[in-house]
Amino acid sequence: MFLIGEKEVAILGLLKAVSLYVHENEKIIEDRNMRYWTKMGFSSIYYILNNLLYFE
After folding, report:
1. Is the distance from CB of 38 to CB of 9 less than 8 angstroms?
2. Torsion angle (degrees, nearest 10) of CA 10, 35, 52, 1
3. Is residue 1 part of a domain?
4. Mutual orientation of helices 42-53 and 6-17 as an angle, nearest 10°?
5. pLDDT digits (tens, 9 = 90+) for 16-54
6. 2 — pLDDT class (breaks 50, 70, 90)
């Protein structure tokens, strides 16, 4: 079972607000200082999106 954590919620929130490319999500994460509470790296965005794609 896959549990949704703060990183997944952050990515889903960004995708809900606007449909963006990964590099645009990266800029928003940086601009909003979201790394302060998510500790999410650039490569994590791809990993999280891939996991969410196959979420059951």
Report:
1. no
2. -100
3. no
4. 80
5. 777 667 778 788 888 888 888 777 777 888 888 888 777
6. low
Ordered DSSP codes for 9-44 = HHHHHHHHH----HHHHHHHHHHTTTHHHH---HHH
For residue 11, being part of any structural domain is answered with: yes
Instruction: Specify the number of domains making up the chain.
Output: 1
For residue 32, the enclosing domain spans: 6-53
Residue 19 maps to a domain: yes
As a residue count, the chain comes to 56
Which amino acid is present at 26? E
